[in-house]
Structure formats: structure tokens, C-alpha cells
Amino acid sequence: MKALRIDVWSDIACPWCYVGKRRLEAALRDFPHRDRVQVIWRAFELDASAPRVRDGSQSYAERLATKYGTSPERAGTMIARMVAVAKADGLDFHFEKIRSGNTFDAHRVLHLAKERGVQGAVKERLLRAYMTEGEPIGDPATLGRLAGEAGLDAGEVDAMLAGDRFKDRVRADEAEAAEGGISGVPFFVLGGRYAVSGAQPVHVFATALERTWAELEPEAAGSEEGAVCGPDGCA
Prior knowledge:
Layout (H helix, E strand, L loop, with lengths): L3 E7 L4 H15 L7 E7 L16 H9 L3 H17 L15 H13 L2 H15 L6 H10 L4 H8 L5 H13 L7 E4 L3 E4 L4 H14 L13 E2 L2 E2 L1
Parallel strand pairs: 1-2
Antiparallel strand pairs: 1-3, 3-4, 5-6
Helix pairs in contact: 1-9, 2-3, 4-5, 4-6, 5-6, 6-7
């Protein structure tokens, strides 16, 4: 029986990744074979050098202005545009609350969630916590609590984060992205053959789903083989 695997490279600290997730989900709602689609969330760090939790001395708008070499007013306009785009897709972004930090441990949690069959729920919880609620996504205790709310055992998460488990899998995801020329996220690979780069409109995902499904051979199903965010920022 055919089954379609979709691998998605994304980061928690990526507004376009959340928008892209919503748009893929919207396309899947109308896809007649959605019950045979598996979405796998792969690791990509936009800023691997970030501290676990930033000191908060700069607002998101100020950091954005510094990154792009623009004025705080221009950065505010960019943020307002992103908020409006997110709202159109049913998302409530609050950049004034964001507490940015390193996302490596969050990706480790997502690998544990994949093993436990709750990766989609945990991914959603972490994105909402970061983009809407202002949770410090790089803080291990916060990760344990949030993952527990999404279906994982908080104690297991805490124990995992205290050690090295899944570090190699996160690095493997990132190495595969580099080898495949993926430099910005979100990046979607359908059935190991078709790629969709960025938070494209829903109809683009719908077309990609239909095309991939039509060409997918049963034995090939599940193969691993708009706007984006990259290490230098989102565009």
C-alpha cells in the first residue's frame, strides 16, 4: 500500500517555519490520501552559536535591526508584516515576548518525540511556546515542561537532556541538509523526490502532494532521501 513520507527541515526559532507548517497542514486537510502521509520533522539550527537563553538586553526588533543593518523603525515594519502574514494563517505571533536562544536541545527533544510517536504534537507545542507565549526555548527545564504538556514523559525528557542522547541524530539531520544544499528553512522533501522550499502558498503544497502521490511507487514510499529563514535571517 502506498504511503508518502514528507521530511521537513525547520527550526523552532523560525517564524516562516511555523507558517509553512500551517500551510502544509491546510493542504493535507484536502488531500484524499492524508491518512497515509507521515510528516517527519528534521533538525536545522538557524544560529548554532546562540546561548541557551539570551540575556534579554536587546528586544527582538533591536536584534533584527542589527542583523539587517537597518533602523529599529524598519525592523518594526518587518515584524508587523510577519505578524500579519501569520494571522492570515491562523497564527498569533508575539515578537515582543520572544526569548530567543539555542535550539539544539529542542531538536533533541523532537527526536525523542519521534520515537514515542508524538513528534507532531511536540513540534507544535514548541513553536507556539516560542512564537506566541515567549517561553525560553533553550532552557532545559522549560523544554521538559512543554514536552510533557505535548505527550512526552517530562522526567524522560529531563534525563535525556542531561546526557548526550540524540545529539548524533541532530547532527546527522544537519549534515544531510548541508549535503543536499539546504541553506534556508522550512524545506520540504516529499517522497524523497520533490522539494518545496519555503512557506509556499497552500496550492503549491497541494500540487506537490498530488504530483508526488501520482508518481510514487509502493516500494519507494517513505524514502528518506516562498519565504525562508537562513542563518543570516528571514526573508
